[in-house]
């Protein structure tokens, strides 16, 4: 099998591969770039594996006029900058001893050692500079073709080496698995058995994985499996997956939105549990406020803006098992376009302090109740 793509033929990629090959070493693309290219999906990160020791990678890069940066040299990784683009070049490794996310590794010249320490079979695929795919374990290509996500070797061993792999199991299943055949039973059982290990992970890493999972086109089957296995409880106490599938259905052509999907899951202290950014936390809070607001569709649009109000309608529809009428969305858009015509300066001659704020709220309520039809003059005349 061969892969192809503009990313593979790009000059900066070929320069790094040629640098290694010119020194007499293996130069292999590995992991996600190979997997995605084989699935005809976009390629983002480009990782390269080699049997060259990291010190030799640095020497070769300098000799080729490229810039080596020892970003993770203790673990065999050197970032080689070519044409202003960084490429992570990592020496073949084998684990000597593991401690959760930390491992003692030994460098290797054997691609099978390197493949055997990777997480999933479809990620243990390599490719040469011309795109020829190598499958050292003899399982990756078949699993990829079947859209079957499986751990490399013993799932329990892979998980106890790094508990983040539990979350990656669900995330990669959502993105690359076949929903019709379900999840790998052995892998799922191991995730359930070792779910308590998630407590050892940083909240930043957990949040990063959950965002990526919820950004999948349809994360609902994977998240439901997370709940059934007890993993979701470890990640987001109090979260429920039952309304996620209806929400994905109602999402329609909207881009997948992790925050909208987090809102339908619920759960306690989500912003802290997943280390959301301030902007993400604020958006989630406003969305929850909108969900609790009994106002009309148009009023929701006015108070929260078109996007938050629309998302609140979608979540309500998902929880009630109802489609969202086009009329409701039009009302939201209408409300979002309205601007309250009275300002504080219009009332300051008569009202001050708390009384001014109360009067503004009163006039705004009248204006909303009128269907946003009362003019500034009419509102001030009523007050007079």
UniProtKB/TrEMBL annotation:
SUPFAM superfamilies: Nucleotidyltransferase (SSF81301), Poly A polymerase C-terminal region-like (SSF81891). Keywords: Magnesium, Metal-binding, Nucleotide-binding, Nucleotidyltransferase, RNA-binding, Transferase, tRNA processing. CDD domains: NT_ClassII-CCAase. Its cofactor is Mg(2+). Residues 186-241 form the tRNA nucleotidyltransferase/poly(A) polymerase RNA and SrmB- binding domain. It holds the Pfam family PolyA_pol_RNAbd. InterPro entries: Bact_CCA-adding_enz_type3_sf, NT_sf, PolA_pol_head_dom, PolyA_RNA-bd. PROSITE patterns: PROKAR_LIPOPROTEIN (PS51257). One of its GO terms (molecular function) is nucleotidyltransferase activity. Residues 28-150 form the Poly A polymerase head domain. One of its GO terms (biological process) is tRNA processing. Belongs to the tRNA nucleotidyltransferase/poly(A) polymerase family. This is Poly(A) polymerase.
């Amino acid at each position: 099998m061969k892969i192809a793509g503009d990313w593979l033929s790009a000059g900066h990629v070929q320069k790094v591969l040629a640098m290694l090959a010119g020194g007499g070493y293996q130069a292999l693309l590995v992991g996600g770039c190979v997997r995605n290219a084989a699935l005809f999906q976009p390629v983002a990160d480009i990782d390269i594996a080699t049997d060259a020791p990291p010190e030799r990678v640095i020497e070769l890069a300098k000799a080729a006029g490229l810039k080596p940066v020892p970003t993770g040299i203790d673990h065999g990784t050197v970032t080689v900058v070519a044409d202003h683009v960084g490429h992570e070049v990592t020496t073949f490794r084998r684990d000597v001893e593991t401690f959760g996310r930390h491992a003692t590794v030994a460098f290797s010249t054997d691609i099978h050692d390197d493949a055997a320490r990777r997480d999933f079979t479809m990620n243990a695929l390599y490719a040469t500079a011309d795109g020829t795919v190598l499958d050292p374990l003899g399982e990756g290509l078949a699993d990829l073709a079947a859209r079957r996500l499986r751990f490399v070797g013993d799932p329990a061993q892979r998980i106890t080496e790094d508990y983040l792999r539990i979350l990656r199991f669900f995330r990669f299943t959502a993105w690359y698995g076949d929903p019709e055949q379900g999840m790998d039973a052995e892998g799922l059982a191991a995730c359930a058995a070792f779910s308590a290990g998630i407590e050892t992970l940083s909240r930043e890493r957990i949040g990063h994985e959950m965002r990526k999972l919820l950004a999948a086109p349809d994360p609902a089957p994977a998240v439901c499996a997370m709940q059934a296995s007890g993993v979701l409880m470890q990640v987001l106490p109090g979260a429920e997956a039952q309304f996620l599938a209806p929400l994905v259905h109602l999402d329609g052509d909207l881009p997948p939105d992790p925050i909208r999907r987090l809102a339908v899951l619920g759960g306690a202290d989500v912003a802290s549990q997943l280390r959301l950014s301030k902007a993400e936390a604020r958006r989630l809070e406003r969305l929850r406020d909108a969900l609790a607001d009994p106002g009309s569709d148009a009023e929701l649009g006015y108070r929260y803006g078109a996007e938050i109000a629309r998302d609140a309608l979608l979540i309500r529809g998902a929880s009630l098992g109802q489609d969202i009428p086009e009329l409701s969305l039009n009302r939201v858009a209408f409300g979002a376009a309205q601007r309250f015509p009275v300002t504080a300066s219009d009332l300051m001659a008569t009202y001050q302090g708390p009384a001014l704020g109360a009067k503004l709220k009163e006039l705004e309520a009248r204006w909303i109740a009128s269907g946003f039809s009362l003019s500034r003059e009419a509102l001030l005349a009523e007050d007079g």
